[in-house]
User: Which sequence fits this backbone?
């Protein structure tokens, strides 16, 4: 059971956020309880001793009586496993928020898809390992289960999608590349990209990005679309900022 706590959120956006959370819980079949608190005192009155699996959607609004960052620091000090999604009118406080390992810092007005992405990231550590695996349909009817985080990249070769991992290659014949990408985005939101036609790449497996290529940790090189260097660089930087890891990597301008 996961507890989702909405705390210190401005009243004019609270109803929509509550609705989005309810729809997220329903659509993902998440075993969760939703709690709404006007301030941190109400939160600590209810959860004074234990809060193991929890996501706190926390408001940072200057016109409210509480300092949202201080509230987050207090919660984090007592319950270190809590995942934070911050909601604010501006980017002020974002650096402090990410120092608390925030999953996301949403600035109003934000879209429903942005909120869903934030919640998906927040939930991920609480899901069992089985929920992060994909079933690959191979030759001879064989089904191979693979943790999606082990994927380095996927390429389309003829009628197959070849999945490259640290252990080798697996040919998958049922999925299209588009279906693969949708599934991977659902399991590890924001971690996979489409740098060039026929390729999906795991951001975590990138060692270097240049104007023309992605150089992967296994030494292989993937072309990027002409003119997409800045966009891909920004995507990678944003992913790193919210907790991703570029292994020993660097950018080439």
Assistant:
């Amino acid at each position: 059971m996961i507890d989702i706590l909405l705390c210190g959120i401005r009243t004019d956006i609270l109803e929509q956020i509550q609705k989005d959370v309810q729809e997220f819980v329903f659509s993902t079949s998440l075993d969760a309880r939703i709690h709404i608190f006007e301030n941190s005192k109400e939160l600590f009155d209810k959860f004074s001793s234990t809060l193991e699996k929890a996501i706190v959607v926390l408001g940072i609004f200057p016109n409210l009586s509480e300092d949202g960052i201080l509230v987050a620091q207090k919660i984090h000090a007592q319950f270190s496993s809590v995942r934070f999604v911050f909601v604010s009118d501006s980017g002020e406080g974002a650096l402090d928020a990410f120092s608390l390992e925030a999953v996301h810092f949403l600035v109003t007005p934000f879209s429903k898809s942005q909120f869903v992405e934030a919640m998906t990231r927040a939930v991920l550590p609480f899901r069992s390992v089985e929920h992060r695996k994909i079933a690959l349909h191979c030759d001879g009817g064989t089904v191979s289960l693979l943790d999606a985080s082990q994927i380095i990249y996927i390429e389309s070769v003829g009628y197959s999608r070849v999945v490259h991992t640290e252990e080798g290659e697996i040919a998958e014949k049922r999925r299209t590349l588009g279906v693969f990408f949708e599934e991977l985005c659902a399991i590890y939101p924001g971690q996979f990209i489409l740098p060039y036609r026929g390729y999906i790449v795991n951001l975590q497996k990138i060692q270097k990005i240049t104007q023309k290529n992605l150089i992967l940790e296994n030494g292989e090189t993937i072309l990027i679309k002409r003119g997409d260097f800045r966009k891909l660089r920004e995507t990678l930087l944003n992913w790193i900022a919210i907790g991703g890891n570029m292994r020993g990597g660097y950018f080439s301008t």
Q: What stands out?
A: Residues 246-251 have pLDDT under 50 and may be disordered. The CA atoms of residues 119 and 201 lie 23 Å apart. Helices lie at 11-27, 40-46, 68-78, 94-99, 112-123, 177-187, 229-241. The radius of gyration is 20 Å.
